[in-house]
Amino acid sequence: MTQYDPWVVREALHNSLAHQDYIRQGRVTVVEFPDRLLVTNVGEFLPGSVESVIEQDAPQAIYRNPFLARAMVELGLIETQGGGIKKMFETQRRRSFPLPDYDFSRAGEVRVILPGRILDERYTQLLMQQPHLSLAQVMLLDRVQKGVRIGREEHKELKAAKLVEGRFPNLIVGSAIAKATGEAARHIRERGFERQYYLDLILELVKVHGPVGRTEIDALLLRKLPERFSDEQKRKKVENLLQVLRRANRIENVGGRGDPQWVLKAGERPRKPA
Questions:
Q1: Into how many domains does the chain fold?
Q2: What is this structure's pTM?
């Protein structure tokens, strides 16, 4: 399979040419990276959002360069019915590749990124196995695989369809899909375990080796926490677990605030080392 679909590349380029703000004397640029193409043009994205263009699926009401756009339509360079962007997304979806990214973060500039490699094999397998998914669902899944946060209602929709798991906003691919794609072990590592499992580990460590400091607790827990968590999220999770046990009067800090040392709370029965 080719790294890029020729039609998708041409459509992105032709759209940039047709909608360029030539008064600003800018350039349409195409930059190739090892894993993506970047097409940039000067001018605001008139429709406002890509989602609105795809939902409307109709000719655009306003063109920045109407005569140029008409000429390009006559030459067959851009879609006459205005469905070019949607067709780009559908084409990438049929190829089971990541969808295009439209970046409007720079004022007065539209950046289109065409991914040229698979980001997550499980999502690729998902698209191949479930061709009935709507384009809206595919767009949400694409955002999840790219680590882009989605809304709570969108999360509920994907979770109801058993396409993702995890607590909002940290999502992972669903277990059924993970098993079908041979990623069951990775799925468990990313999902992590129930909270009680981590609490029991802390209690066992404190019972056998208390008083223990944060270094020992981190050494025990950090590598067992979900892989999708960042280092900062893992450390915050450990802190939260310690506070859960403290508030439940299971452990207490006998050290200072700068160097906490955790022991069993009075009344807890320590277990002697074997």
A1: 3
A2: 0.60
Q: How far apart are CA 204 and CA 52, in angstroms?
A: 54
Where are the alpha helices (H) located in 146-183, listed in sequence order? 152-160, 175-180
Q: Containing domain of residue 27, as a range? A: 6-115
Residue 80 maps to a domain: yes
Strand-pair partners of 264: 251
Alpha-carbon distance of 265 to 260, in angstroms, equals 14
Q: Do 25 and 43 reside in the same domain of the chain?
A: yes
Model pLDDT for residues 131-143, shown as the tens digit of each residue: 888 888 888 888 8
Tokens of 207: 């019972």
User: Is there a domain that residue 217 lies in?
Assistant: yes
Tally helices (H) and strands (E) across the chain.
12, 8
β-strands 109-115, 101-103: how paired?
A: antiparallel
Q: How far apart are CA 49 and CA 45, in angstroms?
A: 7
Rounded to 5 degrees, what angle do the CA atoms 111, 112, 113 make?
115
Kindly state whether residue 42 falls inside one of the protein's structural domains: yes
Which residues are 212's β-sheet partners? 262
Both tokens of 3, joined, read 């790294």
Cα angle 153, 174, 199; round to 5: 90
- Decide: 254 and 211 in contact? Cβ < 8 Å: yes
Beta strands per DSSP E along 83-226: 101-103, 109-115, 164-165, 172-173
- The mean-pLDDT minimum among 35-39, 86-90, 122-126 falls in 122-126
Give the E-state strand segments of 33-157 in sequence order. 36-42, 101-103, 109-115
Give a yes or no: residue 271 inside a domain: no
